[in-house]
Amino acid sequence: MQGEGIHVGASTLFVRFGECDLRCRWCDSPHTWRPAEHCRVERARGSAEFRTLPNPVTLDAALDAAAALEVGAHRFVSFTGGEPLLQPEAVRGLAEALRGSGPRLHLETHGLAVEALARVIDRIDVVAMDWKLASDVRRAAPGEPSAGGFHDAHARFLALARRAPEVLVKVVVTEASRDEELDAMAERIAKLDPAIPLVVQPVTPFGPVRRRPEPRRLLGLVARLERRLADVRLVPQTHPLLGVP
Predict the structure, then answer these.
(1) DSSP-derived pairing of the beta strands 137-139 and 166-173
(2) What are the extents of the domains in the chain?
(3) Alpha helix locations (H) across the chain?
(4) What is the spatial distance between Cα 217 and Cα 226, in angstroms, rounded to a whole number?
(5) Which residues contact 192 (CB under 8 A, 6 or more apart)?
(6) Neighbouring C-beta atoms of residue 169, cutoff 10 Å
(7) Burial (CB count <10 Å: 0-12, 13-18, 19+), residue 57
(8) What pTM does this model have?
(9) 221 closest CA partner among 240, 238, 199, 196
(10) CA dihedral for 25, 85, 151, 197, sign (positive or negative)
């Protein structure tokens, strides 16, 4: 089940890629930051029973797993992470193999790998990109500054992502999120198309992030963003309510 964004509640088969080049303070899957020797594959749809496979998983093994999970019965296949666009050839191979099997192909991405997106965009149905705020996110590589560096890169990514049949932007907000960085985000989205959906996602407390912003703050942010954007939605994560990671 899709647990966040504008397709929340839709049946979704998730393909999770390991490794990420960002460090978000609120990340709920830090185990994906670095490559792992093994991965877990659910044995049957909804069973919560898993088997392990050695990484990297072959395309045939991934397709066999998707078939066992009734891929054609889902509304979406979501390529998520980590950051899937660190492995664009793997994303493209899976997308080409799964295209036409029924579900729409959904790419969940941090929205910074423009060149990698160009290699897969013609095989993706929905691009769901995060807009990272430097108040809570840094780059993994030392010496690469975050402050002021995400907005322009995100704008370039979004300009290309609009080639997909559907694109949406998600921003996770915490108590540290600043008005000026949200204004900078809204300005850049509006320059491309003010009708692009923006999902404001209150942080799910995890790790060092202990609390969500207060409801009054969240409603004020939505009103502020709606001065520039036509489709702003306040949507929290729903899968933690079901105990699903």
Answers:
(1) unpaired
(2) 12-167
(3) 59-68, 88-98, 114-118, 150-161, 179-192, 215-225
(4) 14
(5) 155, 158, 159, 162
(6) 28
(7) middle
(8) 0.94
(9) 199
(10) negative
* 92 Cβ contact partners less than 8 Å away, ≥ 6 residues apart: 119, 120, 123
Please give the DSSP secondary-structure letter assigned to residue 125.
S
For 14, residues 6+ apart whose C-beta sits below 8 A from its C-beta are 77, 78, 80
pLDDT winner (highest mean) among 16-25, 192-201, 236-245: 192-201
Residue that has been written with the tokens 């899957």 in this structure: 29
Pick the closest to residue 85 from 61, 120, 40, 56 (CA basis).
Answer: 120
Round to whole Å and give the CA distance between 170 and 30.
19
Q: What is the mean pLDDT of residues 114-125?
A: 98
Which pair of tokens denotes residue 150? 């995400």
